[in-house]
Design goal:
2 copies of one chain form a homodimer. By secondary structure, chain A is of the alpha+beta class. Chain A is built from 6 helices and 6 strands. Chains A and B meet through strand 4, helix 5 and strand 6 of A and strand 4, helix 5 and strand 6 of B. Chain B binds a DNA duplex through helix 2 and helix 4.
DNA sequence: CTCCTTTTTGATAACGAATATCAATATAGT
DNA sequence: ACTATATTGATATTCGTTATCAAAAAGGAG
């Protein structure tokens, strides 16, 4: 059974890239996080384990993770975040505009109507991004 | 009947701000555009009519247009664009990942299910952003 | 292991979009 | 016309991200 490290290794091999300790560490740290992770958070945790790792390597590796299909990049609120993405069903996001809390949800019918809209305009759907902005229960008080 | 200039004037007056020639010009240019406009495009057209206008004023004014509800800011592909937004129904976007062509569409049922999802998680929906990425008819050839 | 080639690394410079600063200018109200 | 306040344009600054580059590391071949 393939795990994320195997997928990453395969991707790297495919492009004659190397599975280095730095790349392994960054992937490890990334996988320990959940939800949407800002690169600064990853940076802090990576440096806890290896203070010599440079910020450039982190950016380069995150890019590789995106290209290999393990992570997805988002730019919701001017801050780039990365999200784990492996065998995960399509899902959308609900974001609180007050506290930035993020909830993931999915709605099969929405998917269906997205396809419908694409067909109407002769587009081949490749991916989608739906984000709902609102105020969560706690912040409404 | 209120037009955009009146709305802008009202907004400015409300905050003790002034309806200056620069602001009027930028709004004029913005309104002549259609769809999603990059700030550089607006800059070029504004400078055609008044080469003395500074970039800072342009950014400041675009921010005011957003705050006054006349424009909406998007950050689709790392490039910030502004979209005219006046008495416009909710709509979503369909973007070609090859040529960047953008199509607007709306789908009432999608809206309905968005609300549904919000209720499920005790969120009060404030706005949404749905973007479908695909390949348009021309680019499929 | 040793040699050689290619990739990777970390430090740092560079970039670019957006914002802050500030003195000079324009505006609105008296 | 006068005064107080807002606005402007030029420019410096910020900050996230990317490019550069010499040194280090990794993978093969012998």
């Amino acid at each position: 059974m393939l795990d994320e490290h195997d997928i990453f290794k395969d991707y790297l091999k495919q492009y004659n890239l190397r599975y280095t300790p730095q790349r392994k560490l960054i992937l490890d740290v990334f996988l320990q996080q959940s939800g949407h992770v800002h690169i600064d958070d990853i940076h802090i945790r990576v440096r806890d384990q290896d203070p010599t790792i440079g910020i450039a390597t982190l950016y380069r590796t995150m890019k590789l993770l995106v290209e290999s299909g393990l992570a997805e990049m988002h730019t919701f609120n001017e801050k780039t975040t990365y999200e784990r993405l492996f065998q995960v069903r399509h899902h959308d996001h609900l974001i609180c505009i007050v506290c930035d809390k993020t909830v993931e949800f999915e709605h099969p019918l929405i998917e269906k109507y997205q396809l419908e809209a694409c067909e109407r305009y002769d587009f081949t759907l490749k991916s989608h991004r739906m984000t709902l902005f609102g105020i969560c229960k706690e912040c409404q008080k």
